[in-house]
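Open question from group meeting: does this chain pack into something compact, or does most of it stay loose? Before anyone orders reagents, we agreed to write out a predicted structure and look at it together. Recording both the input and the output here so the notebook holds the full record.
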Amino acid sequence: MSLTRAAIHRFRHTYRRLSPSPSITRFQFHPIPIPIPKPFHFHSSSCYSSSSYSTIKQHFAGQDDDYPTGDFHFKPVTGWNKFLVKLKMLIAFPWERVQHGSVLKIILRGQITDQLKSRFSPGLSLPQICDNLLKAAYDPRISGVYLHIDILNCGWAKLEEIRRHILNFRKSGKFVVAYVPSCREKEYYIACACEEIYAPPSAYFSLFGLTVQAGFVRGVLDNIGIEPQVEKIGKYKSAGEQLTCRTMSDDNREMLTALLDNIYSNWLDNVSSARGKKRNDIENFINEGVYQVDRLKEEGFISSILYDDEVITRLKERLQVKTDKNLPMVDFRKYSGVRKWTVGISGGKEMIAIIRASGAIRRVESPLSVSSKGIIGEKLIEKIRRVRESNKFKAAIIRIDSPGGDALASDLMWREIRLLAASKPVIASMSDVAASGGYYMAMGAGTIVAESLTLTGSIGVVTGRFNLGKLYEKIGFNKEIISRGKYAELFAAEQRSFRPHEAELFAKSVQNIYKQFRDKAAFSRSMTVDKMEEVAQGRVWTGNDAASHGLVDAIGGLSRAIAIAKLKANIPQDRKVTVVELSRPSPSLPEIVSSVGNSLVGVDQTLKELLQDLTFSDGVQARMDGIMFQKLEGYPSANPVLALMKDYLSSM
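Structure tokens returned:
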């Protein structure tokens, strides 16, 4: 195998795209593609404060208590309204018909996105999960919920939102039981909110604790002749370390340890509270390395050991369904077609707009885009302007779940959100992550709401490029440049290191970009620059810690953001409002094709995203999940190595 193909082979098998909502249970930093850069990248390292929740709560309680909680209060439908609900169900669309006494079955598995999905889209949507649980609580045809929980791929903030809605559903008096054939910490975090937990005797349980991992590729780069030249600002800016270092720095180790402590402590506290056990007992059990299902039952971690059919038999007994009859069940996707109006959940005259911003940030839509994934700056700005120019919306909520992306797009959206906030109340509601460009957007809102474990902040800059000189020598490639202008070769000459005057300009430019980001954050959060500098430095915080440092105003989910929007818009808390989703996706042909079968798409999604990044990404990046250098293929100074990599990957 040639050196070039060997290098490509290594990167192909080590590349893994990080999701917008990083997994803490198996938290890893992965190597990234190696195209040639454009100068500046805002980037968040995975670093957290080590302050405890109790300390934060004491420090933050006064400010947080100024806002309504948005807590759910179940009010049974009675009298005339009950009759109206029955009437609505009689005239409902055929796809809204549900047999009385049905159990809503929800399979929680894989990735959960914060974006609404069309009927053709695969995967799970957090807002649709929450809406289904809300509808089921009021739907007289639904007797309970049966949750199948398998390995999940989402952040802790989404888990908290799902958990909150499960507990809200239980306030209706209906049952919710969980079936967990495979269970780790995240899956159990959801399951322990249920009334009962069942597992088959052969279930895979691995409640062994949490880990944080950081991978370093400097040795790989040295072996193939690539020299990373990275410039960063902030002692917590650890992003460049995966390229420039072979081991973890002391600062990075300190902060990753604090991150792990924060997440683990939250998990222990909530699980011990849900199972009625002492925190020390939970921790001791974890440290025993128990994997036997019978031990889990003995210690009260699960209700019973049953197969799926046995759980269904038990539910039939509970609902008094004859043994020779099928348990009436309704699938999650079918139930998603039931309107809230049908089950008696109505809004009010006042309307609040929700604009969802999920995924990596791009300024314009890529020609290779295969779905509605990601934040397209131009499209989001159109939605923001529509809300600003409309008199029917009393307030707006920007729902953010993004590690960042294009810095120019982030700034343009920040400006539009600021203009919107000048005309009506704007609340930023942050899901798994709102860091770098994602937090940049949130800064434009008048009030910021985050979950306790939302990845927040990352006000910092990291940038770099690769010197491919030695790699070119190994593969026999030569590149010559004719230029005019002292700095013309700053990013064109990737076959050599920076010259002294180029390195000086490079460093000054990074300082300038960081200053702009930091100063704008200080302005947006009404802080002095010195105060903002203390919480910036490229540091990522949990929502709780961000609140204690003034980066977040309140802790909670979307329901609290709506309650605060009502407060700011002078709408009484007991008055109903109509929440209008402006980001509802329309089904595209690739989504329809992918729903039929992944094989029909013709290429693995990860590979498509890699090729898209290699070809069309441009501009300054404000990201959390890795340094994204500018890709120059298609430009006059395009790197032929990228074309070679693309051709090789496309041929597989």
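Observations to bring back to the group:
Residues 79-207+290-343 form a domain with the 2-enoyl-CoA Hydratase; Chain A, domain 1 fold (CATH 3.90.226.10).
The longest helix spans residues 250-275.
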